[in-house]
Design brief:
Largest sheet: 6 strands, mixed
Strand content: 25-35%
Number of domains: 1
Strand order of the largest sheet: 6-7-8-3-9-10
CATH superfamily: P-loop containing nucleotide triphosphate hydrolases
Structural class: alpha/beta
Order of helices and strands: EEEHEEHEHHHEHEEE
Number of helices: 6
Shape: globular
Radius of gyration: 17 Å
């Protein structure tokens, strides 16, 4: 495994309960690389992401993510792996009764931040990165869909992760807003983070070309 490889999966099989979803999966993702993950609904994209963030245990093959071995990771180590990952979902998963800043603080507290001043400084930094520097006080339900997704990306960035996993991040957004989110994710990859994005939205590929992996017939193939 080279120094710049941040995700390496070798001959892995992925199961949901006892059902084999994907087999013979071999993937390498380098630092600073942007990679699309495509495939029909039910083809295994989300299961693959869940394996990478240790939500599904790895029973077969070897996997290394951000320096953690997926086949031997212990439950108590999983939170440390997840600090190196930022995860962005299609449905934002924000706390709608709290402000934008409080949504970020919630994640920070649950990952071990204690110093209030540092939390506030980091919150402002990541909100500025995603273009929401003046929106920290707003309740998330007062924001547009695109702004809510930007909050979700800010939340994913808060622990300065080495990898961003994005599961259909533009799935609920109009084309113009989707373009803004894509540009933001590409900018993030150019700061040395790996971005692995599952998507159905092929209209973005021409404008934002990148290596593409496809889940099909129980395999992952490079397009």
């Amino acid at each position: 495994m080279s120094l710049d490889t941040i995700i390496e999966l070798e001959n892995i099989a992925i199961f949901q309960r006892e059902i084999l979803v994907l087999s013979d999966v071999n993937i390498r993702v380098e630092k600073g690389e942007f990679v699309y993950l495509i495939g029909k609904t039910g083809s295994g994209k989300s299961s693959l992401l869940q394996t990478i963030y240790a939500d599904l245990p790895l029973k077969q093959g070897t996997g290394n993510v951000a320096g953690f071995s997926l086949q031997s990771i212990k439950n108590k180590e999983i939170p440390f792996l997840r600090r190196k990952l930022g995860i962005v979902f299609q449905d934002f998963q924000l706390l709608t009764d709290r402000s934008v800043a409080e949504n970020l603080h919630f994640v920070m507290k649950s990952t071990g931040w204690k110093d209030k001043k540092k939390m506030e400084q980091r919150t402002q930094d990541v909100l500025e990165k995603v273009g929401l520097g003046t929106k920290g006080f707003k309740l998330t339900h007062q924001l547009s869909g695109g702004e809510q997704q930007r909050v979700a990306i800010a939340r994913a960035l808060v622990n300065d992760p080495e990898i961003i996993l994005a599961d259909e991040p533009t799935g609920n957004l109009d084309p113009e807003t989707s373009r803004g989110i894509m540009k933001l994710l590409f900018d993030i990859s150019q700061t040395g983070r790996a971005v692995l994005m599952a998507t159905h939205n092929y209209s973005l590929f021409n404008e934002f070309p990148a290596r593409t992996l496809k889940c099909e017939n129980g395999k992952v193939i490079t397009q």
